[in-house]
Amino acid sequence: MARKKRTSVHGQWSGRLAFILAATGSAVGLGNIWKFPYITGENGGGAFVLFYLLCVVSIGVPIMMAEVMLGRRGRASPINTMARLAREEHAHPAWRYLGWMGVLAGFLILSYYSVIAGWALAYIFRAMAGEFAAIDAEGASRLFTSLVQDPVDLLAWHTIFMVMTMLVVARGVRSGLERAVSVLMPGLFLILVLLVGYNIAQGDIVHGFHFLFDPDFSKLTPNAMLIAMGHSFFTLSLGMGAIMIYGSYLPDDVSIARTSFMVAGADTLVALLAGLAIFPIVFANGLEPGAGPGLIFQTLPIAFGRMAGGVVIGGLFFIMLVFAAWSSSISLIEPAVAWLVENHGMKRGKACVVSGIATWLVGIGTVLSFNYWSELKLFGKTFFDLLDYLTANIMLPLGGALIAIFAGWVMRRRSALEEMNMGDGAAFELWHFLVRFVAPTAVILVFLSAIGVLG
Ligand code: TRP
C-alpha cells in the first residue's frame, strides 16, 4: 500500500534539526516568559503548575505528535491539509473548518501577542538607557505604568513588531531568522539561569521555589484548571495548525515522537526557569504575585538594576525575549498566509501585507485595553483579557481535541501507523490511546467543570 510521497508547495526543512529549531522557536516565546509566570501568580502557584505539567505530558505531547503527523501527511496549509485528509479517510468535508478555526485563532493571538512583544521592545531601550539603576518595586511599577498608559507609544512598538514579523514571513519560513534564533535562544536560556543564580545568591530562591512547587489544591479552581490546560496548548503552539504547518515541511524519515518530546521538554524547562527567575524577586520585594500581565516587567528590572553589569544583561535579556517572540509570531500567521497563497492565488508578499494589516488593526483593541478602554469590560474582562481567554482557553483546546479525535478516530489506524513511522509497538499503542481517549476526554471534562456543570 505504498502511497505516493507528497511534498509541500512551500518547500521542506533541510532536516530534523531545522524542524526542531523552528518548532522550538515557535513554542518558546512570550508564553513561557511573560504569560506562564503571571498566570501562575494569579492562580496560586504549585497546584496550578502541577496541573499544567500534567496537561503537557498527557495531552500536549500526544497532540503535538498528532499535529505533526497530520501536517506531514497533508503537506499543505491546515485548511487544505484537513480537507485533503478528510477526503482520503472518507470523512466529512466539514473537517476543513478545523483548519479555518486555526487560522482565525492564530490571527487573533498574534494581534495581542504583537502588542506585548512591543513592550519587550520598549524595555530593550529602557534597560540600555540605565533606567533600572537601583530601582525599587514602586519605581518598577511606575515605569511599567508609564508605558502602558501611553497608547501612542504602545501603538508604535506594536507597529514595529508587526512589520518585523511580516518581513520574515514574506521571505518564507526558512529565512535567516532560523539561524539567529539558534544562537539567541541558548542566550536567553543562559540569562534565565543567571537570574536564577542571582536569586540563589541573594537567598531569595526558597520562597519562590515553594510558591512554584508546593501544591495547595484548594486553589485549583475549575477556572484555574481551564487556564492551565489552555496554557499547555498555548505554550506548545498547539491547537491551531502552527505545528501542523511546520509538520507539513518535515522530511518523511524524521521521528515524530522523538522530536515532539524534545520540543516540549525544552519549552517546559524554559517556563520553569522563568518562574524561578521571577517569583523570588516578587517575594523578596513585597510585590503581588497576581499583578497580572505586567509581572515580568515589574520584577526583572529590580534585579537588573541591582546586579553588576545589569545594564548589559538586562538589555540582552529583552533583546533575546524579542527574538523568542519573533520566532513564535511568524508561526501564528503562517497558516493564514499559506492559505491566502494556496486558495486565493496571492503572491506571498501580498498575502503578508493583507494579513499583517488585518492583524495590526485588531491589535489596536489590545493597545487601548491598557489605557482608554481599561474600564470597558465584557464579562469582567477587558478587550485583551477577553481575546486571550477566548483563544487560549477555548479555541486552542477545542482545536486540539478535534485534532486528537481526527487522528485517533477518523483516521484509519493503518494510516496513522504508516505516517508515525514508529513501528507497531507499545509506544504507538500508548500514543493512540492518549489521542483517542485521554486527550479528548480531558478537554471535555475541564470545559464542563469550568462552565460549572461539574461544580
Ligand atoms: N507558543 C508560543 C509562546 O509560548 C506562542 C505561539 C506561537 C502559539 N505559535 C502558536 C500559541 C500557535 C498557540 C498556537 O509564546
Write a structural description.
The chain is an all-alpha fold. It is globular. The chain has one domain: Orthogonal Bundle (Hydantoin permease), CATH 1.10.4160. It has helices at residues 16-27, 30-42, 46-74, 78-88, 96-128, 137-148, 151-170, 177-202, 205-213, 222-235, 242-247, 256-284, 295-306, 310-344, 348-369, 383-410, 413-420, 426-450. α7 (151-170) crosses α14 (310-344).
List keywords for this structure.
binds tryptophan, 0% strand, mainly alpha, Hydantoin permease, 76% helix
Reading off the top of the CATH hierarchy, the class is best stated as Mainly Alpha
Ligands in the structure?
Answer: tryptophan
Which regions are unreliable across 5 or more consecutive residues at pLDDT < 50?
none
Instruction: Give the terminus-to-terminus CA distance.
Output: 50 Å
Determine the structural class based on helices, strands and strand pairing. Answer: mainly alpha
What is the CATH-assigned architecture?
Orthogonal Bundle
> Radius of gyration, Cα only, in angstroms?
21 Å
Secondary-structure element series:
HHHHHHHHHHHHHHHHHH
Shape: globular
Helix content: over 70%
| Average of pLDDT | 92
Largest sheet: none
Q: Determine the number of helices (DSSP H or I, runs of at least 4 residues).
A: 18
Number of strands: 0
Number of domains: 1
CATH topology name: Hydantoin permease
Query: What portion of the residues fall into strands of 2 or more residues?
Result: under 5%
